[in-house]
Write a structure and sequence with these properties.
Helix content: 25-40%
Order of helices and strands: EEEHEHHEHHEEEEEHEEHEHHEHEE
Distance between the termini: 11 Å
Strand order of the largest sheet: 6-5-4-3-2-1-16
CATH class: Alpha Beta
Number of helices: 10
Largest sheet: 7 strands, mixed
CATH topology: Metallo-beta-lactamase, Chain A
Structural class: alpha/beta
Strand content: 25-35%
CATH architecture: 4-Layer Sandwich
C-alpha cells in the first residue's frame, strides 16, 4: 500500500486576509486516515469546501497561538460541524492559556451536546501527543516554543513507520516467516513535517525542526523589512531560508505572506529565499503537496 501524505495550504496570508490569501490554515491527511488541521484562521471552512474536504472529516486541530488570524475561523468551523450532524470525536491541541476561550466556544456553538471535543492543553518548552497508532505505524505530534510576540508554539508531525518486507512474497506464511526472522526486513526512516506558526528566526526553532523532510515556515516580509519583522516576532523570507539551511531540512514551504505582496510581487519572496536555500516553494491558497513516506 502506498504511504502518501497530502498537504493543503488552505490559508497562506498574514494578519490581514485578502481575496487571494486567507489567514493561517494548513491541512494534512495521510494513508492512515488521519485528517489534521494546523491553525484555523478566518475563512478556513470556506477553503475546506473549495478543497473538497468536509469539515466533519477533520479529526485533529492544532492551534499555534491566540492571535486572531490563527483562531478566528474556529467558532464557525465548530458550528458547521455541529449543524452537519457530526458525532465523531474531535481533538483540539492548543496553548493552555486558550483553554477557557475554547471551552466557551464549544459551549456556545453547542458542540458539546452533539460530539465529544477533547482539549489537549500544551505548555512549557516542548512536549508530544500520539495522534494515532494503526498497525505498525504511528503518528505523533510534537510541539516546541517559537519566538513570537506572545506565547506561541510550532509543531512537528512525525510518521514513525514499522518494519516492512524489502521484497514481494508469494504467501502470507512466507511473509510471517521473514518478519519473525528479520530476513529481508527494513525499517523505513520516519517522515517529519514541521510548521512554525508565527516566529522570528531563533535557535530553538532551528533545533526543533532539524532534519525534517518539510518545513512550513512563515515569511511575512521581504528581506528589506528585517527590522520590522524582528520587532513583531516575524520572519522575512530570507530569515526562513536561513533557518531551513541551518536546520538541514529537505524542503522549505513559505507561508503567512503580508498583503504588501500581491500577485506576482509575492514571487520575490520565493526568489530571494532560493538564493539562500534553493529547495524553497512559496505556498498559495489551495495548493497541494504530495509527500511519500
Amino acid at each position: 500500500m502506498a504511504r502518501l501524505i497530502e498537504l493543503m495550504t488552505l490559508g497562506t496570508g498574514a494578519a490581514l486576509p485578502s481575496l487571494e490569501r486567507f489567514t493561517a490554515a494548513h491541512l494534512l491527511r495521510d494513508w492512515l486516515g488521519n485528517v489534521i488541521l494546523l491553525d484555523a484562521g478566518e475563512g478556513v471552512q470556506h477553503r475546506l469546501r473549495q478543497a473538497g474536504i468536509s469539515p466533519t472529516k477533520v479529526e485533529f486541530i492544532a492551534i499555534t497561538h491566540g492571535h486572531g488570524d490563527h483562531i478566528n475561523g474556529l467558532p464557525g468551523l465548530l458550528q458547521t460541524m455541529y449543524l452537519s450532524g457530526r458525532t465523531s470525536k474531535l481533538t483540539v491541541i492548543a496553548p493552555r492559556y486558550l483553554e477557557d476561550y475554547l471551552k466557551s466556544v464549544i459551549e456556545v456553538e453547542g458542540s458539546e451536546k452533539a460530539f465529544q471535543v477533547d482539549l489537549v492543553p500544551i505548555a512549557g518548552d516542548e512536549g508530544s501527543y500520539v495522534i494515532s497508532v494503526k498497525g505498525r505505524d504511528r503518528l505523533e505530534l510534537r510541539w516546541f516554543r517559537t519566538c513570537h510576540s506572545v506565547e506561541s508554539y510550532g509543531f512537528v508531525l512525525e510518521w514513525v513507520l514499522g518494519p516492512r518486507l524489502a521484497r514481494p512474497v508469494s504467501s502470507a506464511e512466507e511473509a510471517k516467516r521473514l518478519m519473525e526472522t528479520g530476513e529481508d526486513v527494513v525499517v523505513p526512516a520516519p517522515l517529519r513535517v514541521a510548521y512554525t506558526g508565527d516566529t522570528s528566526p531563533c535557535e530553538n526553532v532551528i533545533a526543533s525542526v532539524r532534519g525534517v523532510d518539510v518545513l512550513i515556515h512563515e515569511a511575512t516580509f521581504d528581506s528589506t523589512m528585517e527590522a520590522e519583522a524582528a520587532k513583531f516576532g516575524h520572519s522575512t523570507s530570507v530569515g526562513a531560508a536561513r533557518v531551513a539551511k541551518e536546520a538541514s531540512v529537505r524542503k522549505l514551504i513559505l507561508t503567512h505572506v503580508s498583503t504588501r505582496y500581491e500577485g506576482y510581487e509575492a514571487k520575490a519572496l520565493e526568489e530571494e529565499a532560493r538564493q539562500v536555500f534553493p529547495d524553497t516553494v512559496l505556498a498559495w491558497d489551495l495548493a497541494r503537496f504530495a509527500l511519500k513516506a
